[in-house]
Structures are given as C-alpha cells and as structure tokens.
Amino acid sequence: KAGVTQTPRYLIKTRGQQVTLSCSPISGHRSVSWYQQTPGQGLQFLFEYFSETQRNKGNFPGRFSGRQFSNSRSEMNVSTLELGDSALYLCASSSTATADTQYFGPGTRLTVL
Amino acid sequence: GDSVTQMEGPVTLSEEAFLTINCTYTATGYPSLFWYVQYPGEGLQLLLKATKADDKGSNKGFEATYRKETTSFHLEKGSVQVSDSAVYFCALRAFLSNFGNEKLTFGTGTRLTIIP
C-alpha cells in the first residue's frame, strides 16, 4: 500500500505570494492532519480534516487555510507569504475517526525569499 | 494544556552503546504515547507506540514503557548502530471525545549521532 504523498517536495516563493500544497493520504484513510516544522518552533499542529470537515485547528493566522476533497486528498493554502512561513510542511493521515496512529508524508519544503 | 518534555540534545554515542532518551508528559485524560524518528531530508516515521499504562512499545530494538505514575515514556535501545543516527520525537495524543482525532503534541526532538 502506498504511503502518504505530498507535492511538491520543494517550493521557493517570494514574500506576498500565495502557495498551495497537496497531500494524498494512504488509501482508505479519511483523516488528514497538517503540521509545520521549523527549527525555532519545532512541530506545530495546523489543522485536521475528516470526511471533508475541519475538526481541529491550531493557533495559526487566517492566512493558513485548508480543505479536503471527497477522495480524502487535502490541500493547504498560505496567502500573503511571510519570511517566517519558511518551513517543512508535513501531512499525516490516519484510518479512523478516533485513529490512534498518524502516518506522515515526506513533507514539502517551502522557502520564502 | 498538553505538553511533552524531551531531554536536550544533541546526543552522541559510540556504536553498540546503550541509549536512553528521556520523555515526560502532562496531559488531560489518558493519552496515547508515541516515538517518531526523522532521518535527514525525510518526514516522520512512527517508531513505536503505547496506548495505556504499563504498555511497552517496541520496534527495531527500541523499547519504551508507558509509566503513568511518573508520566514518562523513555526510549531505550541496548546497542545502537550508525544507522540509528536521526532525530527522535516523543509525542502524545489525548482524546477528548469519541469523535475527535485530537492533534499530536510533540516534544522538541533529540538529535542522535552514532559514531563508528
């Protein structure tokens, strides 16, 4: 069974632009969560989707948004990029509504210049 | 709120040495506990987990026991290899309801380097 895939793997943007990252969960998984990883703040939770509904949201500004499609694929969008948005963005999927294990993708490395 | 405290790194050991990475937590309810490993340039891989007190998770020679009385989940390995060099993250998830896939709360990570 294929793992979690994320596209693109690397991205370079400039301040003020917007970006969309994509995540395809493991086949059959309906829950998708997004995390931001930076050297200074570590791993921080962005949001979680289940069956196309956002169920949990972390403490990030409204510039960060996401959605989930009927096939469970998810996208996250960051508008008006800032230098501090440079990070590794990780997507994780799990199989049930109360899943006890999340499986991570390789991440998208975003660099904002 | 929930939190995870890991021992500060980096940790450098010689091959075949004994490894302990300390992890303690605070959480409401009864959390599940996890260790994830991140190799350079990659995402996180689940190493092991435990879902209730006194459970022992194990994988690839690594072990960790869920200790409710000391709120700890220390990672151990009896004989480390160069290939174990990576960053290790302790994490918890505490369920608040039957319908919430609550977020993972991570520790800061411990960078481990094994010298041949």
Describe the structure.
- With 113 residues, chain A is mostly beta strands.
- Chain A has strands at 5-7, 10-13, 19-24, 31-38, 42-50, 53-57, 64-68, 74-78, 87-94, 103-104, 108-112.
- In chain A, strands 2, 4, 5, 6, 9, 10 and 11 form a 7-stranded mixed beta sheet that branches. A 4-stranded antiparallel beta sheet of chain A has the order 1-3-8-7, with no helix packed on it.
- Chain B has strands spanning 3-6, 11-14, 19-21, 23-26, 32-38, 44-50, 56-59, 62-65, 75-77, 86-93, 105-106, 110-115.
- In chain B, strands 2, 5, 6, 10, 11 and 12 form a 6-stranded mixed beta sheet that branches. Chain B has a 4-stranded antiparallel beta sheet with strand order 3-9-8-7, with no helix packed on it. A two-stranded antiparallel sheet of chain B has the order 1-4.
- The radius of gyration of chain B is 14 Å and the shape is globular.
- At the A-B interface, β4, β5, β9 and β10 of A face β5, β6 and β11 of B.
Task: Provide tags for this entry.
heterodimer; A: 113 residues; mainly beta; seven-stranded mixed beta sheet; four-stranded antiparallel beta sheet; 11 strands; 0% helix; 53% strand; B: 116 residues; six-stranded mixed beta sheet; globular
Count up the helices of chain B.
0
Round the mean pLDDT of chain A to the nearest integer and report it. Answer: 92
Radius of gyration of chain A: 13 Å
Oligomeric grouping of the chains: heterodimer
Structural class of chain B: mainly beta
State the shape of chain A.
Answer: globular
Structural class of chain A: mainly beta
Order of H and E elements of chain B: EEEEEEEEEEEE
Q: Which sheet architecture does the biggest sheet of chain A show? A: 7 strands, mixed
Distance between the termini of chain A: 37 Å
Largest sheet of chain B: 6 strands, mixed
- What's the number of helices of chain A? 0
